[in-house]
Write a structure and sequence with these properties.
Layout lengths: L1 H18 L1 H16 L2 H7 L8 H13 L23 H11 L1 H10 L10 H15 L3 E6 L14 E5 L4 E4 L10 E5 L3 H8 L9 E8 L8 H9 L6 H16 L3 E4 L2 H10 L6 E7 L7 H17 L2 E8 L4 H5 L15 E9 L2 E10 L5 E8 L2
Parallel strand pairs: 1-5, 1-7, 2-4, 4-11, 5-6, 7-8
Antiparallel strand pairs: 2-3, 8-9, 9-10, 10-11
Helix pairs in contact: 1-2, 4-6, 4-9, 11-12
Length: about 375
């Protein structure tokens, strides 16, 4: 269980402690339980090693709890109306619930995927789409790799408010996603320079010729079970994220896009071929490559380059530098643009025109889409 223990210890420091008192307390408890050889460790052991991760365990528990809203554990979960703060009784209550529903939780651990579909990430991707359109002067054929329920394939349809450090704002996006609230994203850096840099790439309309999402296990936004799973992946205290997810899913259910099931390394070539000849394929991925194997990420980069040698193409990557854009640059160290330490994702692009590859670092991105430092520049 040493690898699982490391996963929980890293989760505590890097994620839970920042915004979830409940998951902070539960992560500390589970870490101790793993060290002591306790019952939660036995539940995790029943899952494949790659599934023994905090987000998946806690999502499996919360999903089960949605069906048991009168459980004593629900009192700790704001997502179920609970108001009880973590206390000395939490560990015992959590353990009792997990053991009482062990079969269901183990089934989710064995088969579930952390397919968090945070729609606010579209606020970071939207300028990249406008940038791609400006670079190529053609409509875009969107192809999302790791699409989950496909919420980011509607990026042009949302309404955005980009907020600058001097309090000024820039509105953007089509705003045709009825019922979905405006997406607010903080833009870092001196306001005048940041506005000048961003404004050309956030038009009201990005021309989209086609949309398709690729995923090993795509989720139908109209399916109640899929919606409940995505809801369970949202942390209990994150009420704004939960409301955004629910409204974006409702919109996606009303305006369905094509979602293809299968390994992207096999389905991507057909998806690229399916983009109309008057448009340019725009392959993009957001916080997906971290779930791939090292070999899979290398194969993805090779495939993009093969496809780009055959047809004009843009590939936009938003992820941790080492697993995302860094795989294209081949440089192990992340170049800095002076962004705050909380920015640990890089938004980059590989552009193929006439068979020639050019790499561009577009922005530094904050967790869950809440902020970015937009500064497009070529990578030498």
């Amino acid at each position: 269980m040493s690898e699982a223990l490391r996963n929980f210890q890293l989760f505590l420091v890097e994620e839970a402690a920042k915004s979830s008192p409940l998951y902070t307390a539960l992560t500390m408890f589970v870490s101790q339980d793993l060290q002591d050889g306790g019952p939660i460790g036995d539940v995790l052991t029943a899952a494949p090693e790659r599934q023994r991760i905090p987000n998946l365990l806690f999502a499996a528990v919360q999903r089960t709890l949605f069906d048991e809203p009168d459980s004593e554990l629900a009192a700790y979960y704001p997502s179920l109306g609970g108001t009880r703060a973590p206390d000395d009784a939490l560990a015992g209550t959590f353990t009792s619930f997990v053991l009482a529903h062990r079969e269901q939780i183990e089934r989710v651990l064995a088969t579930g995927e952390t397919q968090t579909n945070e729609a606010l990430r579209a606020a970071q991707l939207f300028p990249a789409l406008g940038w791609a359109q400006a670079c190529t002067r053609r409509p875009l054929g969107l192809i999302e790799v790791g699409a989950s329920a496909g919420l980011l394939l509607h990026a042009d349809r949302y309404a955005y408010v980009y907020e600058f450090e001097d309090g000024s704002e820039l509105t953007a996006g089509e705003g045709s996603a009825d019922g979905v609230p405006d997406f607010h994203c903080a833009v870092r850096g001196p306001a005048a320079a940041a506005t000048k840099a961003l404004a050309p790439f956030v038009p009201k309309n990005v021309r989209i010729a086609s949309r398709v999402g690729l995923d090993i296990n795509p989720l139908d936004p109209a399916d109640p079970d899929a919606r409940a799973w995505l809801d369970a992946l949202i942390w209990p205290e994150h009420t704004d994220r939960r409301e955004r997810l629910r409204t974006a899913l409702a919109h996606a259910a009303r305006r369905p896009v094509r979602l293809r099931k299968g390994d992207a390394l096999r389905t991507l070539p057909d998806a690229v071929d399916g983009v109309p000849g008057t448009a340019i394929p725009c392959v993009f991925t957001s916080n997906s490559l971290g779930h791939w194997t090292r070999e899979g990420r290398a194969a993805f980069v090779d495939l993009i380059r093969q496809l780009g040698a055959q047809r004009d193409l843009v590939c936009i990557i938003k992820d941790q530098y080492q697993v995302g854009f860094g795989k294209f640059t081949g440089k192990p160290d992340e170049p800095t643009d002076g962004a705050p330490a909380s920015y640990y994702e890089v938004l980059g692009a590989a552009v193929f025109l006439g068979g020639r590859e050019q790499l561009f670092r577009l922005a530094s991105c904050e967790l869950h889409g809440v902020g970015l430092t937009w500064s497009p520049k070529p990578v030498s």
